[in-house]
Design a protein that fits this description.
By secondary structure, this protein is of the alpha+beta class. It is built from 2 helices and 2 strands, in the order αββα. Helix content is 44%, strand content 15%.
Length: 82
């Protein structure tokens, strides 16, 4: 019984260490580098979501391009109210 409790304790400690490292890294990446968004509805047709309301497209929003003012003609820009 003591052997199984020691294994659970070590597993829980390793999980917590990994969790407390992975969460800040993931949050920083999503805030500073890029994030994933889903395009739904008819607002971007026919470029995105050509199938209409039955389907949706997934896009990568690049934060570095906007932050460094590297936006070019033809780029799709997402604005978030907040």
């Amino acid at each position: 019984m003591a052997l199984s409790q020691g294994w659970v304790k070590r597993y829980f400690k390793a999980f917590c260490k990994g969790f407390f490292v992975a969460v800040p890294v993931a949050v920083t990446f999503l805030d500073q580098v890029a994030c994933v968004a889903r395009v739904e509805g008819a607002s971007m047709q026919p470029s995105l979501n050509p199938g209409g309301s039955q389907s949706s497209d997934v896009v990568l929003l690049n934060h570095w391009k906007v932050r460094n003012f590297e936006v070019q003609r033809g780029d799709i820009v997402s604005l978030v109210k907040g």
